[in-house]
Amino acid sequence: MPDLFSPFTLKGVTLRNRIAMSPMTMYRAVDGKMNDYHVMLMGSRAAGGFGLVFAEQIAITPDGRTGTSCAGIWDDNQIDGLARMCRMVKAMGGVPAIQLGHTGRKGSEQKPWEGKRQIAPDHEDGWQVRGPSAITYGGRYTYPVQELSIPEIHELHQAYADAARRALEAGFEWLEMHFAHGYLGASFFSPLANQRTDQYGGSLENRLRFHREALDSVRAVWPERLPLTMRLGCDDFHPDGVKFEDSIWAVAELKQHGLDLADLSLGMNTDDVRDPPFSQAAFMVERGNRVKREVGIPVAVSWNLGTPAIADQVIREELIDLVFLGRPALANPHWPIWAARELVHPDPFSLLPQDWSWWMKNRPGSENSHGWPAANT
Question: What is the domain-level CATH number for residue 264?
Answer without folding.
Answer: 3.20.20.70
